[in-house]
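=== Structure Prediction Worksheet ===
Name of assembly: unnamed complex
Input type: mixed (protein and possibly other molecules)
Chain count: two
Listed entries:
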Amino acid sequence: MRLSRRRVRGVVDKELRDLRRNSNVVYTMLVLPLIFLVQPVVEVLTLSAHSAAVLRREHTLTYLLAIPTLVPAALAAYAIVGERLQGTLEPLLSTPVQRRELILGKALAVFLPSLAVAYVVFALFVIIVELFSAAGVAGALLRTPYVLAQVIFTPLLATWSIWLGMVISARFADPRAATQVAILVSLPTVAITSLIAFNVIPANLRVALGFGVGLLVLNRIGWRVATAVFDRERLITGSR
Amino acid sequence: MTGAAEQPALSVRSLSKRFGERMAYEQISFEVGRGEVFGFLGPNGAGKTTMVRTLGTLIAPSAGSASVAGVPLSEANGVEIRRRIAIMPESPGLYQRLSVRDNLACFADLYEVPAPARRIAEVLSMVGLAERAAELCGALSKGLRQRVALARALLSEPQVLFLDEPTSGLDPAAARDVHELIEGMRERGVTVFLTTHRLEEAERLCDRVAILNTTLRSIGRPAELRDQLFTRALLVRTASALADPAAVFASLPALEGWHAQGDSAYLLEAADISALAPHAVRALVAAGADVLAVEERRHSLEDVYLELVGERREEAAR
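=== Predicted Assembly ===
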């Protein structure tokens, strides 16, 4: 059966309206990125001009990829369990919305603000580096391949985290537990980006391509799994 | 060939639902005609909500078959069935941080309602909330939230409207408002499937009722159920006890039996009360009795319900 754009848009609009008024979730969205912004900003701003050459051998920017990994995981983890908690899931599932439409709508409603936050934080980082770092530091740090990687991997990582969060959200009954577990299962991805940032995994085109293709495949699988685990009966009655 | 309009709104055949070892309901069969207000009564855990969820395609039956709004009940037909019906669950389930209008706008999109702004204004007007469209649902009283939930259920102009305990937890004034809205549904020709604990509500609103306690105990018009379970009777009160009541009542036509109710009241059982009453009054007057009152003893739907769900027997056992 075809997907209805209007139903997907209805879910997205509702989620975004609700998100704007949910201060707890907004704080989570803002605090996590700020934590991950502080360390690289401090590191870069304390570098002297003659240390800039060191940056050419490091991949500090990759560290910021933790933001599009963790923020959507936390948001997506609330997506379904939150509806159960509020008692809104049953009326929602009583409508003609298909589970693919619901999952897609909820995923988009997490994807869009997460992407916005990740890009805004990255832009903030670039502005701080350009304005306040020592001479030569910005040029050494903000190299085109790394900026490009940031732009390309941000949506791929965010999507992967959303599917993880959705699967957990559909399986858990307690939103706090769901959020904690979603962040926990996102840590291996953060570990990979951190290992690249700290030069343990070499940052080259082959690794980037492999990482990119791997994420595309995982995202395809993630969409299928997230849709499959969304079982109306189990979500409504708690048993099947 | 039978036209869609002639098909029943709901047709349920030997439907059962089991959760592991527990049977929610078993071998249920009934039909609900189009435009009928049908009451589904039963104690807690009888399977009422599970039946609503099954017919609403939220959960799958374990056995049996059904058709809802003319569509066979199956997972593949879920979207089509849900397009034709609306369910108002016991808890309104509104987005508390969104306004009344935003709540309805979301559901208008999910039902793909044409001209949503106009339809939202219409349903808000129907439930008397036109002036409160901009208020957050979290700030509304329970009664008003229930009205918003009803407005949401009416958005798509459903053929069948499932109301699961719509007045649960409401004060009498708010419950009366909901009753008036349900009567309005009947006037519009909407089929209403109403689950309730409130027997006076069912008696007032429903054309027919089914009494369920895991299995279907009985089904029919409230008056029919009373007649099935209880012999009709005439209660006669006199100023003083009759000297020989057996002699007075012996010759009454249509009398099936009688017994005294205290010192000066008598219960006369008959299938046709209207045939019995004039003869009974004449016989009493002829016997010199001062007749204070003659009335048909009415059993309430509550009597029927308690008889059928077995609570009376349990009370007696205690």
